[in-house]
From TrEMBL:
This is Nitroreductase. Its cofactor is FMN. SUPFAM superfamilies: FMN-dependent nitroreductase-like (SSF55469). Gene3D superfamilies: NADH Oxidase (3.40.109.10).
Length: 161
């Protein structure tokens, strides 16, 4: 799959088959993800593999669509508000890379912002200053939602003198 096809056909998957995804592949996609842009080579991502006990306590309404694997990706602590934003931005790039890499090999991913909830934060016992940027269910898609059309980019293009 070329990059254009990967970008255009990736969808936010909400229903998964139970078949496991080989962890070696996941680690490889995470490695590729780590080539994301990041200021001063901060590499501000930490990846948590959520085990069954923790996952049950999260009490997600669909149990993440039955995904066989659940990751949470956090950004590392920062000293200033600017650094904090840059860390989160870099982690978002990391997540996008991961999603595209998985999708290119037929594996679906979702993105849930559930990690912002204080209850979930506490449950994960994150080190001080780490923030969850996304919970990512990972697995073979049971259902692929239709593409949501995007606004023509010309409407977002602003010519400055
Ligand atoms: C920061 C962020 C948070 C998101 N949180 C959620 C979420 O909590 N629940 C959800 O269903 N989708 C969430 N999404 C996924 C979007 O709903 C999804 O990407 C959007 O509907 C476009 O669909 P597509 O990714 O299939 O093109 C999130 C996406 C981002 C970037």
């Amino acid at each position: 799959m070329d990059i254009k096809q990967a970008i255009l056909t990736r969808r936010n998957i909400k229903q998964f088959k139970p078949d496991p995804v080989p962890m070696e592949r996941v680690e490889e996609w995470l490695t590729w993800a780590s080539y994301a842009p990041n200021h001063r080579m901060a590499e501000p991502w930490e990846v948590y593999v959520i085990g069954p006990e923790t996952r049950a306590q999260v009490k997600h309404k669909t149990n993440f669509g039955g995904a066989p694997l659940l990751l949470a990706v956090a950004s590392t602590p920062a000293k200033t508000a600017i650094d904090r934003d840059e860390h989160v931005e870099a982690v978002a790039c990391f997540i996008q890379n991961f999603m595209l890499a998985a999708h290119a090999e037929g594996v679906g991913t979702g993105w849930s912002s559930l990690g912002v909830s204080p209850r979930v934060r506490e449950l994960l016992a994150l080190p001080e200053g780490q923030e969850i940027v996304g919970f990512l269910p990972v697995g073979y898609p049971l259902e692929v939602p239709a593409v949501k059309p995007r606004t023509p980019i010309q409407q977002k293009l602003h010519q400055l003198p």
